[in-house]
């Protein structure tokens, strides 16, 4: 006799709340992984099962699927789209464990510029909020091989122009993670800085500097500049060759005013596998050694996670009026700089670190511009004067300050002083015209109140004549 399964049998010993038989639920459970609480999309044909929290079926958000044993599971109204569901019986610890697993899968698969990443993070945020958990704190835990998810998002991040220039159609994974991680703790910031260093991603590092989270300005600078991010422009170029040479162009906004009021300007950058800090400061009045108290100084040091190194370098400041007779109009965004491959080391001068060969489009008769006037390394630098232009006055000498290490530079483990082995410090007065940078109306400060300087360096023991062969 065939008995209709829809009607209960008399005197049936089976409990009323017993789960349905295997035959009844098997067609549904083929695409429902209750132990992972993930979307119920069927796996693609031919794919093997995985223990991962994040499957390919999650690339498009599926609707919520109710439990097979719930009333009205088949065919009742549609719920809000989500990436996973947690029953009310789930504990905060279980939610935290699942979110950590999802974050691990997210950075491992690195779904960059995918709507899936934002959807997963939003769902995690909603679930954490309903269980009184902070997603920001979870994302900043060093839960993945001793680092945060943000660290791995930087390490695995493609260095494509669209991400660097902010022209991508949707936020990349790092941006999405940062959005849900704020406010960042100092430990997390150090972890992200470390990731930029191990990948030598100077452009990303400078992009992150535009966030108050990573480069908070002092209260004095915030008052002077009217903003909470450092406006200074830093451009680094590695010089081809095995000498470990590099050059850095700086454009420092309101240099004199910030030095007069704030007494310090710090500029950080990544070059040759190290994190550097070039710092302008006023020597304290109570120091007993080093530069004269009250004098303006410049120092160079390496920061956290940087290996020790020797360095020989010089800081150059050219007089803007010696380049152009009049201030040029702003360059259009389409203006580009000659390639870095045009840079060639030279030994033509006892203290010449670099010379610049003309680009391929230049006339053979055009002489190669020499540092520091060449625009080869800074697209914001004014172009050379036209033949019919003449300087307003005889060019003054370029300020040149040599920064060389007497011992290997090491990362400071304490608050470095102005004259110790952890940094190279020289007074601006060591240069013939260096002291003039602190005087009002200095011809080395451009009319827009910006100081444009250039650091030329190579990693190695200093030589008597400072020549790179």
TrEMBL record:
Residues 46-59 have a biased composition (Low complexity). Residues 30-39 have a biased composition (Basic and acidic residues). Residues 1-81, 364-400 are annotated as: Disordered. This is Uncharacterized protein.
């Amino acid at each position: 006799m065939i008995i209709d399964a829809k009607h209960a049998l008399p005197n049936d010993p089976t409990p009323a709340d017993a789960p349905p038989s295997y035959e009844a639920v098997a067609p549904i459970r083929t695409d429902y992984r209750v132990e992972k609480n993930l979307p119920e999309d069927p796996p693609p044909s031919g794919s093997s099962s995985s223990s991962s929290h994040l499957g390919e079926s999650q690339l498009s958000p599926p609707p919520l699927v109710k439990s097979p044993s719930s009333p009205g599971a088949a065919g009742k109204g549609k719920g809000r789209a989500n990436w996973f569901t947690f029953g009310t019986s789930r504990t905060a610890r279980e939610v935290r464990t699942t979110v950590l697993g999802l974050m691990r899968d997210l950075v491992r698969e690195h779904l960059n510029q995918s709507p899936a990443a934002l959807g997963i993070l939003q769902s995690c945020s909603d679930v954490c909020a309903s269980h009184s958990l902070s997603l920001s704190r979870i994302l900043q835990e060093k839960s993945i091989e001793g680092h945060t998810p943000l660290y791995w998002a930087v390490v695995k991040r493609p260095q494509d122009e669209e991400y660097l220039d902010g022209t991508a159609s949707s936020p990349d994974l790092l941006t999405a993670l940062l959005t849900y991680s704020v406010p960042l703790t100092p430990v997390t910031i150090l972890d992200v800085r470390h990731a930029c260093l191990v990948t030598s991603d100077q452009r990303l590092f400078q992009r992150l500097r535009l966030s108050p989270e990573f480069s908070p300005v002092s209260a004095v600078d915030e008052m002077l500049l009217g903003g909470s991010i450092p406006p200074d422009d830093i451009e680094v170029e590695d010089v081809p060759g095995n000498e470990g040479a590099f050059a850095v162009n700086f454009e420092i906004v309101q240099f004199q005013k910030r030095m007069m009021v704030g007494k310090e300007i710090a500029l950080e950058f990544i070059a040759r596998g190290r994190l550097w800090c070039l710092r302008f400061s006023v020597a304290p009045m109570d120091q007993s050694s080093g530069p004269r108290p009250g004098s303006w100084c410049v120092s160079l040091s390496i920061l956290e996670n940087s290996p020790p190194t020797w360095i020989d370098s010089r800081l150059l400041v050219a007089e803007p009026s010696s380049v152009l007779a009049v201030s040029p109009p702003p360059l259009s965004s389409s203006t580009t700089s000659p390639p870095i491959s045009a840079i060639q080391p030279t030994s033509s001068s006892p203290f010449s670190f670099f010379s610049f060969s003309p680009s391929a489009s230049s006339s053979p008769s055009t002489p190669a511009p020499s540092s520091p006037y060449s625009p080869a390394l800074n697209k914001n630098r004014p172009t050379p004067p036209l033949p019919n232009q003449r300087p307003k006055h005889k060019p003054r000498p370029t300020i040149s300050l040599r920064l060389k290490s007497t011992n290997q530079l090491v990362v400071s483990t304490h608050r470095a002083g102005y004259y110790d082995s952890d940094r190279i410090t020289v007074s601006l007065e060591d240069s013939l015209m260096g002291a003039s940078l602190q005087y009002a109306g200095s011809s080395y400060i451009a009319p827009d109140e910006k100081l444009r300087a250039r650091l030329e360096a190579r990693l190695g023991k200093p030589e008597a004549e400072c020549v790179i062969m």
